[in-house]
Specification:
With 143 residues, the chain is of the alpha+beta class. It contains seven helices and four strands. A four-stranded mixed sheet has the order 1-3-2-4. Helix 1 crosses helix 4 and helix 2 packs parallel to helix 3.
Length: 143
């Protein structure tokens, strides 16, 4: 596994943003928003050296941002491996690449903060503070 926290810190420093859409565009990934059933959240595809992140535009805006950060993880960490898709019932599936993309999204969306500030907060409270699912909080703080 790559050093994902370091990778995210370098990206944020280089592009001076935590907006996954801005970073995707800066590295040449085209973002498209399309209507899908509630089962498909989004996917990353690399075809003929063209990289695309497709996000379900029917999702709430906060969820689109999470999907975009996850798919950006695939674009950066796994761009030579093809297509990755998130479906509703497998938002946090098993598998090395999916775990890495989840870790990337967690590092990207949950800013480095003083651990003393959150030491008395529950996982749910931290998730609410950052506007992410609690599963991403687990990815952020697991070793």
């Amino acid at each position: 596994m790559q050093n994902i926290p370091l990778c995210v810190r370098r990206l944020v420093k280089k592009y001076e943003t935590r907006d996954p859409a801005k970073i995707a565009q800066a590295i040449g990934v085209t973002i498209k928003y399309k209507s899908y059933s509630h089962h498909t959240k989004g996917y990353f595809i690399n075809t003929l050296r063209n990289k695309f992140i497709v996000v379900n535009k029917n999702l709430p805006e906060f969820e689109q941002r999470i999907v975009l950060a996850h798919e950006l993880g695939h674009a950066i960490l796994h761009s030579n491996r093809g297509t990755y898709m998130i479906r509703e019932y497998t938002l946090f599936p098993k598998g090395i690449q999916e775990n890495e993309a989840n870790k990337f999204a967690a590092e990207f969306l949950i800013y480095d903060i003083d651990k003393n500030m959150i030491k008395d907060m529950s996982c749910d409270q931290i998730a609410q503070y950052f506007g992410v699912p609690k599963e991403l909080v687990v990815y952020k703080f697991q070793k």
